[in-house]
Please model this.
Amino acid sequence: MDDSSDRPNSDFAPGAFSPGNPLLGSGAFPAVILAAGKGTRMKSRKSKVLHPVCGKPMLQIIVELAATAGLGPHIVVVSGKSEPVREALGSGCLYAVQEEQLGTGHALIQSQDVVPDCDNLVVMAGDTPLLRPQTLVELTQTHLASEAPITMLTSSLTDPDGLGRVVRDSDSRITAVVEHREADPETLSINEINASVYCFRTSWLWDNLPRLGYSATGEIFLTDLVEVAATQGSEVASVTVEDGAEALGINTRLDLSRAESMMRDRIRRHWMMEGVTIPDPESVYIDHDAHIGIDSVVLPNTHIRGGTIIGEDCEIGPNSVVVDSQIADQCRIVSSVVEQAVIESDVQVGPFSHLRPGAYLESEVRIGNFSEIKNSRIGRATKSGHFSYIGDAEVGANVNIGAGSITCNYDGEKKNRTVIGDDVFIGCDTMMVAPVTIGDRSYTGAGSVINKDVPPDSGAIGAPARIRSRKTGNDSGSPGRNAAR
Ligand code: UD1
Ligand code: CA
Model:
């Protein structure tokens, strides 16, 4: 499928060809991306082009690969109900609206007022995320080296079902693209397909595009321009990609799963080529924007999602899910879920723990099994080995959090903070009823309920706890209200 292991790692990592494509000169070389289609075959409430492939909406993948190839600005043709698309892409794109979905040719016409003055432009579909930036560069190079009004991307597929066929004459000159549903049996036997990526001479395009007629299905096919050019006696140039995946247009959920699997494979190959060990690649899912340092090992059944950054010499997995998190060097995450968390170096988590948004673990922290940490900073070398919940807390360095200890952070109305100093010993099953502070070097007894502040160098025992002097062992106050309700 993808034999590109010796290529530069440019398949998906944006920026591989940046800044820009020097071959395109300094003028604008816009890319128009057609994304207004109904996507009926997806059977989805969501726009087809927003369905993610390896964690990123396919349209965003396409915009980024166009940018990587040096094309810009990006003009996205959207339907009338395009808010989610605009939200996903942000302000970096220009938009043209196609109110009625009357075909790819009709969609391109809508962009004319938005496309800036330029000699040439690229037109792409919003559903071909496996295209490589390098292929776009080759397409534009071939185009600029020819006189052709159109240069198109084609591929030869063993199963060209559903796609537009590229018709060539006896001299191999392209004469037409015939859509599958309009093709006769002889045309259907052609394996070369239109990948829906084109380079046009702009003036020729704007002259001829408005003259296209409606097909039998009531649509204006962009592909009909190929026959127009050929009939005028012009050459239609082409670039043929060997890797058919590049031409995969996603029309159904089946196509989506194929694209996802091929993209996943590319991403894993990329990281293995970059020095990451993945002993069982098939079971590992890594999103587009994730990053993994050298000599890290990603063990089976592990998902590294979103913009996660993993350092060097880490061991992630087996059975771990890491989402939008930063993990520094020499960490181990075993059978655990880590979401929007930051972990400094030499930290161990798991098995079976859950770091939730806002968890910050300083170096040498040890989190064992069945611990949950949310919106809390855990100081250097602190340990929480078994069954604990730490929420909205600030925990110092070298703290030992005994089994079953819990920050009771929620009083039914608001979340309250727990502050634990350095070198504190939290006895098993301690309930810390927030807001509460436990001073440096203090301890809590097993089963204690801490509902008022514990000064430094003290112990706190009982339920609710009484404060005692660490030296004399005498109580220094009466029991407070039991707030652990
Ligand atoms: C298209 C090509 C076909 C090619 C195939 C490659 C045409 C007529 N056919 O077929 O030759 O082999 O891609 O994948 O172009 N869109 C709009 N407005 C519309 C219709 C479509 O913006 O009115 C957009 C879609 O959102 C999509 C792209 O154009 O991103 C392609 O449309 P789609 O319906 O997927 O075309 P295919 O049938 O796949
Ligand atoms: Ca398509």
Remarks:
- Residues 34-37, 49, 77, 98, 101-104, 106-107, 125-128, 163-164, 177, 179, 193-196, 221-223, 249, 251 surround uridine-diphosphate-N-acetylglucosamine (ligand 1) (CB under 6 Å).
- Residues 305 and 323 are 5 Å apart (CA to CA).
- The first strand starts at residue 31 and ends at 34.
- Residues 1-10, 12-20, 478-485 have pLDDT under 50 and may be disordered.
